[in-house]
Write a sequence for this structure.
């Protein structure tokens, strides 16, 4: 019995020592679990506070924790404290449907907040990615996954955000430059356009951004530019057509240069065209003077013809009297009167602008086919302005000329188009053309001789 008691006593001592060791180990583990719980609760409250700082959900007011203070001997407190957890376990066992416990409510709000932040993060990432696509950023420069994932070492999302922001800023600067350029161009073409009309929006007043109102002013600007282009093309066509319409002038400008896209060539063409117009203006200024001279010459010719007709009538009267005269004395007297009148007529004809002797023998020195005139080797004393000449070659008639200007050693004559038989050449012979008066005189003399016979 004593032996049994001794064995039992040893066993009790061993069990007591084992229990003491286990109690110590349990105490240590309990302290570790308490510390672990405090750190988890502290971390959760810090995370919630950070997430709620800009989210403004008010969740941090429901998720609180204050660790125990061993020095002040104050227990831990807050919605995530051990007491709240213990009450939640007790209430859960007593009332399974009870949901108002601060511990369980704080954890649920923490899950809700993190889910909302994650959703917001994903939607922002998707929105940024779509914005980058809409801005025309190549897909290889941005990634939707890169905007969602958080790689602490690389921070890829920051690089993507910077690319999108930089590109958006560049597009904004480009739009501003384009608006400024369009406004300046509108000012230059005389149709001012307000910059604000190209950048302002029509706000709805319902909390949403309105559409930009750029379509109408841009459409008006486009119409103005097209109208200016059409007017410019018409001016260009008119300027190009001038050298073709006025073919008698020696134009210096080239029509192709007027429509050149090179500014230097175009400006030079305009300067040349201006000189051409000045030359035409000078020629036009001489027209009234030439018209006046022409009118004077026509009047002189008219008077000369009038006198010539009077002389012819007088001669005709004398011829009639000569035919009626039967006696020799009367015929002789009439002939003397006729000779006297012919002498006066010859002197008169010598004083006018035409000669009819038929004795001129000249030659063509120069031919201007473009303007239709020739230069003769006869001058003052040989021909006069208005004299008509015949052109011959190898005994054949070629053309008829009319003298327009007489100088000391040469004269200028126009080729009469209606009586041409061929082309005038340098070296062709020229002589006086027989006048109608001489032909009539010859016929009268023949008829007189027949009457006398």
């Amino acid at each position: 019995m004593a032996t049994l008691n001794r064995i039992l006593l040893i066993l009790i001592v061993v069990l007591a020592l084992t229990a003491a060791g286990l109690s110590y180990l349990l105490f240590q583990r309990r302290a570790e679990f308490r510390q672990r719980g405090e750190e988890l609760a502290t971390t959760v409250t810090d995370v919630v506070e950070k997430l709620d700082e800009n989210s403004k959900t008010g969740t941090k007011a429901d998720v609180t924790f204050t660790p125990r203070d061993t020095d002040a001997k104050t227990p831990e407190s807050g919605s995530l404290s051990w007491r709240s957890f213990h009450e939640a376990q007790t209430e859960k066992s007593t009332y399974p449907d009870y949901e108002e416990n601060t511990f369980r409510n704080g954890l649920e709000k923490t899950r809700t907040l993190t889910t909302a932040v994650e959703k917001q993060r994903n939607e922002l990432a998707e929105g940024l990615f779509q914005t980058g696509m809409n801005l025309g950023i190549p897909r290889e420069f941005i990634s939707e996954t890169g905007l969602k994932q958080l790689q602490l070492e690389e921070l890829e999302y920051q690089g993507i955000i910077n690319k999108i922001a930089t590109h958006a800023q560049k597009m904004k600067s480009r739009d501003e430059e384009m608006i400024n350029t369009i406004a300046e161009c509108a000012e230059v073409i005389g149709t001012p356009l307000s910059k604000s009309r190209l950048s302002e929006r029509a706000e709805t007043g319902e909390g949403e951004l309105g559409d930009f109102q750029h379509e109408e002013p841009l459409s008006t600007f486009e119409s103005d530019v097209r109208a200016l282009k059409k007017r410019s093309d018409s001016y260009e066509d008119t300027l190009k057509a001038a050298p073709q319409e006025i073919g008698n002038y020696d134009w210096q400008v080239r029509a192709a240069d007027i429509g050149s896209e090179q500014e230097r060539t175009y400006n030079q063409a305009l300067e040349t065209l201006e000189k051409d117009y000045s030359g035409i203006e000078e020629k036009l200024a001489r027209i009234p003077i030439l018209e006046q001279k022409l009118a004077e010459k026509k009047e002189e010719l008219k008077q000369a013809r009038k006198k010539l007709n009077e002389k012819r009538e007088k001669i005709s009267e004398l011829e009639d009297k000569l035919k009626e005269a039967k006696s020799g004395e009367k015929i002789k007297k009439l002939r003397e009167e006729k000779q006297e009148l012919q002498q006066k007529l010859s002197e008169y004809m010598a004083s006018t602008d035409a000669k009819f002797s038929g004795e001129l023998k000249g030659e063509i020195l120069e031919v201007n086919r473009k303007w239709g005139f020739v230069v003769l080797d006869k001058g003052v004393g040989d021909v006069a302005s208005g004299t008509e000449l015949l052109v011959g070659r190898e005994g054949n008639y070629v053309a008829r000329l009319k003298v327009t200007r007489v100088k000391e050693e040469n004269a200028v004559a126009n080729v009469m188009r209606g009586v041409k038989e061929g082309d005038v050449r340098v070296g062709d012979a020229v002589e006086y053309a027989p006048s109608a008066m001489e032909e009539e005189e010859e016929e009268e003399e023949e008829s007189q001789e027949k009457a006398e016979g």
Observations:
- The first strand starts at residue 362 and ends at 368.
- The radius of gyration is 62 Å.
- Residues 93-99, 348-358, 436-443 have pLDDT under 50 and may be disordered.
- DSSP finds eleven helices and six strands in the chain.
